[in-house]
Amino acid sequence: MEQETEKNYKNPEYYTNRELSWISFDKRVLSEARDKQIPLFERLKFLSITASNLDEFFMIRVASLKDMVNAKYNKKDMSGLTPQEQLNKLNPVIHDMVNIQYSTYNRSLLPALKQNGLTVFAAHENLSGTDAAYVDKYFMDNVYPVLTPMAVDSSRPFPLIRNKSLNIGALVKKKGEEKDLEFATVQVPSVLSRIVVLPSEEGKNRKVILLEEIIERNMEKLFLNYDIVCAHPFRIMRNADLTIEEDEAEDLLKEIEKQLKKRQWGQAIRLEVEEKIDKRLLRIIRKELEIEDKAIYYINGPLDLTFLMKMNGMEGFEHLKYPKYVPQAVPELPADESIFGQIRKGDILLHHPYQTFQPVVDFIRQAARDERVLAIKQTLYRVSGNSPIIAALAQAAENGKQVSVLVELKARFDEENNIVWAKMLEKAGCHVIYGLVGLKTHSKITLVVRREEDGICRYVHLGTGNYNDATAKLYTDMGLLTCNEAIGEDATAVFNMLSGYSEPLSWNKLSLAPLWLKERFIHLIKREKKNAEQNLPAHIIAKMNSLCDRDIIEALYEASAAGVTIELIVRGICCLKVGIPGVSENIKVRSIVGNFLEHARIFYSENGGKSEIYMGSADWMPRNLERRVEILFPVECEDLKEKVCHILDLQLKDNMKAHILMPDGTYEKIDRRGKELFDSQELFCEEAVAESAKGQMIEGNERVFIPETHIEE
Questions:
Q1: Between 231 and which of 91, 170, 444, 599 could a Cys-Cys bridge form, CB atoms 3.0 to 4.6 Å apart?
Q2: Alpha helix ranges (H) inside 452-590
Q3: What CATH class has 339-509?
C-alpha cells in the first residue's frame, strides 16, 4: 500500500511544468498592467516589467531547453514533458502573451496617456511641420554623430548583432542603378535616451517620440548614395546562459570575464520584428541569424517595451502614480545611538521596504569606524551601483580591521558588477573569496566581531534579501540583527567553511544548504503530518518566491493527505497543484503581485501548539536546496514571532493584490464584493508610518514627527 501511495505522489499529472508556471506568473504581472483601478503610470511600469521578465526567460530558460534539445537530452521533467515538448507547449503560450502585451499597449495605455496629456507618436505617424523640423534637427545635432551605419556586400560581411540591442535593418540600392538590393543596418544607440520629448506650449499636451522613429525617418542621411527601399526595426535575443568549468578554471574571475564577452554573441533564440516588415528584408535577417519560424515575433508596436519604465519616471505626472513611499525609521534603533548597544538589548526584526534599509548600512559603517571591532565578515550576492556597504567594507580594511568578503561572481547578470567590486575590495586590503566550486553562495549574512568589557561578542545580521540599498526600496524582505551566542558561533562556522572548507561537527541554530537544509524542511513538514495523525494542531504557512522541488512537494502532498492545513504564499513559479482529491485538498496557494516585489522567505510550523518560525535566503527549488549555499535562521523572541505571524496573517487576508491558484492551474483574483478590502502592502506602509511616528515622539513635548508622504487608502 505504501509503495502504491509513493508512486501516486510522483504521478506527473500532480505537477505543473516549471516554465509554464513561470509564464503564468508573468501573466499575473501583465494583469496589473491591464487593471484600470491602478494608476496609469504604474500600469506602464508593470507592462515594462513583463517585457524585461520575458527577455530574461528567453536568455536563460528557453536557451537552456534549446541546449538540451540540441544535445539530444530527452529526460522528462516532473510533469512528464521532454525539453522539446516543453518548447512546443511554451511557443503558443508566449506568442499569445506577447499579443496581449501589445493589445494592452495599443488599445488601453496609449489612448489613456493621450487623454491624460501625453501623446506617444506611433510608428510612421505623420508629424506636423514644427515637430518634423525639430525631430530632423535633433537627429543631426544629437543622433547622427553617434551612429555607425553598416552596409553588407562582398567586402563587408553581415555584422555581429549584439544581444538585446535594437537595430534598424534596411534594403538599399545605389542611386541610378538597377543592381540587386543590398542589406544595411544601424544599431539604435543605448547611450542616448530612447524617449525624446518634443517641444510643446505650456498647458498643451506633451508629446514624445521614440529614438528609433527618428533614425528611421532620417535613414537616407546615413546612406547618401543609396535609395532606401524599406527600413524596419528588429531585435534579437541570444543564449546568455554562461557555461563555466570551475574545476578547470585556474582563475574564476578571469574565466567569468571571458564568458561575459560570449554572452553578447550566443546563439540567437528569438527575433522580434515590426509586424509589417518587408519579407525580403526578413528573409536576409532570418538566414544570417539562423532563426526558425516559430522564434519570430511580429510586433504591432514599438519593440522592447522596457522603455515604459523610463516613461514611468517622467516628471509632471505624479497624479497618475502611487504617492511616493518613504521607508520608515526602525523604532528599536534611534538615531545617534550605538547600534551594538541596541542589539545587546534584544534581537531586532527589520521589514523592508516598509522600514528603511539604513540600519543594515549603519551596522557595517559603525563597525568600520568602531575601535572595538576586530573583524567584519560578509557575503555579497548583488549590490547596488554605488554601494555604501562596499565603501564601508573598504574603509574598515583601511582602518586595519580583518575584513573577509565573499563576492559571488556567478550572480546572474550581476557578474560584471561583482567583478568590479571584488577588485576594488582587494585593492583596499579586504580578503576576498569567490565562493565554493560548483556552488553559488546565495546566503545573506554579516558577522561583526567586537571586543566588549565582558569579552568577545559576535553581532550578526541575517536576511532574506541582498545587501543592495537600491532594491531594498522595491523588494519586500526581512532581516534579523542579533548577538545571540549560538547564532554567533554558527556564523563563524559559516565563514570558516566558505574560506577554508572546514565544516564544524555540529551546528546550533542555523541550517545550511546544500548540507542539510532540504532535510530540515522535509523534517518540519513530516512533523506536522505526524501531529495531524495524532489529532494535534497541524498547520504550515510558507512564503517564498518559487516552489518547484519535487521532494518538498511530495512531502506537502503527504502532509495534506494526513489532514495538515497548508497555506502557501508563492509569488512566482509553483509546480504544486491544489485540489487533487485525496492529495492536495488541504493546500491553498496564493500569489501576491503588488507595488513592491514580494521577496521574503518565511516558514511557519504549528508544531503541536509550540509554533516555530524560520526565515532565510532559500526558495523551495532544487537549485537553492542542492546547488547553493543558503541559510535558514530561527526567529525565537516571542515579540518578534508575533510580528512575523502578523505579517503572514495580513498577506493571507489580502484580497486586493492576491491571485488564488485554482485546481485547473489558472490564477484568479478574489471576488471582493461585500468584503472588507485588504491590500497587505498598503497596510504595512501605514503600520510602519504609525510605528515610526510613535518612536519619534519627543520627551516633554507632545509634538510627534509624521513623515511627509505615505501611501493612503
A1: 170
A2: 485-500, 517-533, 550-561
A3: alpha beta
